[in-house]
Amino acid sequence: MLQYNIYKKAFLILFLLILCSCANWEFVYSNHSLDKLKDKTTLNFINNNSYALSYLTKLVGEEKKNADFELTINLQENITNIITKNNQTANTIQIEYLIYYTLKNNNEKCEILNKQILTKSSYNSKSSGYSFGSDVAKNDAEETAIKQNINIFIEYIDAFYGELKC
Fold first, then answer.
1. Number of domains in the chain
2. Distance of CA 68 to the CA centre of its chain
3. Does residue 4 form part of some domain?
4. What is d(CA 28, CA 126) in angstroms, rounded to the nearest whole number?
5. CA distance 142 to 122
6. What is the distance between the alpha carbons of residues 126 and 91, in angstroms, rounded to a whole number?
């Protein structure tokens, strides 16, 4: 019984020590620059994509009429058949997204950055006819490529434009 109490006290002390030492953790993926854009940015899409629009809206917030910043996104999609079967049906399909980002400061009337980012994703076609699995795979590949592209852009902003100055 005495040994049980010692283990119990040791566990309690260890638990409290870990709890106290982890109190001031900061997450590595901290978007200080993105926080400056949140709810202060107007989004302009050329070649609109509903997933990119919804994902960016979650990140920068709802648009304001007199926004401090304007982010223009020009999204270009290229679909290529990588592997084709003998009957000329595509087996593996690659989707490329080339997105041009332009961030402007509306108050100072200047361009902060202009960046283009290319991301690729691929999926396997399930059959030569209509297949629900192919549609799901295509949507997943598109979302993955777009999300990856936007995340690269956010990392770029945070790494090189911490102050978001012209």
1. 1
2. 22
3. no
4. 39
5. 9
6. 7
pLDDT at 165 over 70: yes
- For residues 72 and 53, what is the distance between their CA atoms, to the nearest angstrom? 11
* Amino acid at residue number 44: N
The pair phi, psi for residue 55, each rounded to 5°, is -70, -45
Global pTM reads 0.70
Residue 13 included in any domain: no
**129 has pLDDT over 80:** no
Please say whether the beta carbons of 95 and 141 come within 8 A: yes
Whichever domain contains 47, its CATH number is 3.30.160.150
Count the neighbouring beta carbons within 10 Å of the beta carbon of residue 52.
Answer: 22
- Amino acid sitting at position 19: L
How many helical (H) and strand (E) elements, i.e. helices and strands, does the chain have?
Answer: 4, 4
Q: Is the dihedral of CA 31, 32, 34, 39 positive or negative?
A: positive
pLDDT band at 24 (very low <50, low <70, confident <90, very high): low
**More confident: 35 or 103:** 103
Dist CA 149 CA 5 (whole Å) = 55
User: Is the residue at 6 inside a domain?
Assistant: no
Kind of pairing between the strands at 90-105 and 69-84: antiparallel
Print the domain residue range for 136. Answer: 31-160
- Beta bridge pairs of residue 26: none
Q: Could you tell me if residue 19 is inside a domain?
A: no
